[in-house]
């Protein structure tokens, strides 16, 4: 005769043996549902799982506890004395876990109200950086924005590791990092004030032949190192490298000590004036770009998507303003 609860009589009469493993909250929730329904089929349907799978989980729970919780007879499913005794405890555990999940989710949302943005060198002072952060504050006034300084070594690793959520950096970026170009500017050579080329208004790359370049850290991407050293040179002249620098201050120190020269963005003139060094235009050096960067796998994360959208709008508005200014300058009085 089939048992109403769906288990065969011989297996359910066996006394469970303790398996030593703790019961899962999932199993406890199944037990609570069965205690309410007192029917395997209805309890399984209520939780949208099959009856055999439901029965298997209840048997596993009994084995883990070393107790028979359910008295399965040919007429009904009932709780054993042990089942009735453990019912309040099972309910307390599942309620505590539910509260834990709610608290964790609340904390997660609180964490999501904070974004860490990395910056390299003078990027925090750039107009586009201010415009993007101002707009971010307008759209998300409750968002805490932490600015974290990066250097030549950790600028891209910090994105991949999650140390920062996004960053204002100088491409080229290695694989796995996506960028949105924000602005472009020329590059300059940074020379000791006593260098013979310091008296020139403009310098060509071939005039730098033989002068040692500041060495970029080997931990940084090779493509990035070569780009900033302009290696290889257009005329094929070999490069000589001097002391290592992990940030702009290190570059400036090596130059001021007359140990090497460095190639930097033109904005270094404004943000890094130093005694003993001069900046000269490089007439034949490719320009450099400023960009917002993020780890490719985080592209569609809500905070990154918002930051990207804001950066897009800032770049678009800046381009429109520049175009309008150019048209006004071309319009005859």
Produce a short descriptive summary.
The protein contains eleven helices and 13 strands. It is α/β, with parallel strands linked by helices.
If you had to describe this structure to a student in words, what would you say it looks like?
With 333 residues, this protein is of the alpha/beta class. 42% of the residues lie in helices and 20% in strands. It has a five-stranded mixed β-sheet with strand order 4-3-5-13-6. A four-stranded mixed β-sheet has the order 8-12-7-11, with helices on one face. Strands 1-2 form a two-stranded antiparallel ribbon. A hairpin with a 4-residue loop joins strand 1 (70-72) and strand 2 (77-79). Helix 2 crosses helix 3 (40-46). Mean pLDDT is 86; it is low at 1-15 and 323-329.
Count of the domains: 3
Which residues form runs of ≥5 with pLDDT under 50?
1-15, 323-329
Q: What's the count of strands? A: 13
- The largest beta-sheet arranges its strands as 4-3-5-13-6
Amino- and carboxy-terminal Cα gap: 103 Å
CATH topology of the largest domain: Arc Repressor Mutant, subunit A
CATH superfamily of the largest domain: Winged helix-like DNA-binding domain superfamily/Winged helix DNA-binding domain
The CATH architecture of the largest domain can be named as Orthogonal Bundle
Mean pLDDT rating: 86
The rounded Rg comes to 33 Å
Global outline: elongated
Strand content: 15-25%
């Amino acid at each position: 005769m089939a048992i109403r609860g769906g288990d065969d009589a011989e297996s359910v009469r066996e006394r469970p043996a303790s398996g030593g493993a703790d019961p899962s909250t999932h199993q406890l929730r199944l037990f609570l549902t069965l205690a309410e329904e007192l029917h395997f089929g209805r309890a399984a349907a209520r939780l949208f799982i099959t009856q055999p799978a439901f029965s298997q989980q209840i048997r596993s729970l009994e084995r883990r506890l070393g107790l028979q919780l359910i008295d399965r007879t040919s007429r009904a499913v009932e709780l054993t004395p042990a089942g009735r005794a453990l019912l309040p405890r099972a309910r307390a555990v599942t309620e505590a876990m539910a509260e834990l999940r709610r608290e964790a989710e609340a904390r997660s949302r609180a964490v999501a109200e904070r974004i860490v943005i990395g910056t390299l060198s003078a990027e925090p002072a750039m107009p586009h950086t201010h415009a993007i952060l101002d707009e971010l504050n307008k759209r998300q006034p409750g968002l805490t924005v932490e600015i974290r300084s990066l250097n030549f070594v950790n600028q891209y690793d910090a994105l991949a590791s999650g140390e920062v959520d996004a960053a204002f950096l100088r491409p080229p970026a290695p694989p796995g990092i996506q960028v949105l170009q924000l602005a472009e500017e020329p590059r300059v050579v940074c020379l000791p004030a006593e260098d013979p080329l310091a008296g020139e208004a403009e310098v060509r790359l071939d005039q730098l032949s033989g002068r040692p370049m500041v060495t970029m850290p080997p931990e940084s991407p090779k493509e990035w190192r070569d780009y900033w050293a302009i290696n290889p040179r257009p005329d094929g002249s070999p490069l000589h490298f001097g002391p290592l620098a992990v940030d702009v201050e290190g570059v400036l120190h090596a130059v001021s000590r007359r140990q090497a020269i460095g190639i930097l963005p033109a904005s270094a003139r404004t943000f890094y004036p130093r005694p003993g060094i001069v900046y000269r235009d490089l007439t034949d050096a490719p320009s450099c770009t400023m960009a917002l960067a993020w780890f490719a796998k985080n592209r569609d994360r809500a905070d990154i998507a918002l930051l990207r959208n804001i950066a897009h709008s800032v770049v678009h508005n800046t381009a429109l303003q520049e175009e309008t200014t150019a048209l006004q300058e071309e319009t005859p009085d």
